Amino acid sequence: MEHTGPFAHSLETAIALATRLEQALLDETRAIELRDPDELQRVVAGKQQLADQLEEETLRMKQWVEDTGYTFDAQGVERLLERVDPRRDLTPRWDALRGYVVRCDQLNRTNATLINRDRKRVTLSLRILRGEDPNATTYDPRGQANNGTSHSRTISRA
To answer: Which residue windows does the record flag with biased composition (Polar residues) (predicted)?
Structure first.
């Protein structure tokens, strides 16, 4: 391998971080499903730290790739690896990192959907408890959806 030491080291570090991030996202999913706010808060803090570290490592890889004259995208890295790694030892590792990133992105989107679903469920429950019509939708002066009215009946008046 021709001068791939810094890139290979950074790649392995990024894979280790991405592996841990994927596990953190799975832990986040579990905390959301169990509705455990303390665990969720703990997991989210760790997830953010891992995401920050992965971003820093990605910037190191990007700098190394760009310093060698290639673009830091799938095609640029593939061309670079063809040139500096003729035995293609790093290609499976690069592909593994890309796979982790795709899975982490999907898990993150899924978790955001779960959180949004739970938020909507809580909002609906609160509206019902206030005696508001959960199906009524109006709009405020900014054009934002405003469900219910300010003159709704509370549960104590129902």
So the answer is: 144-158
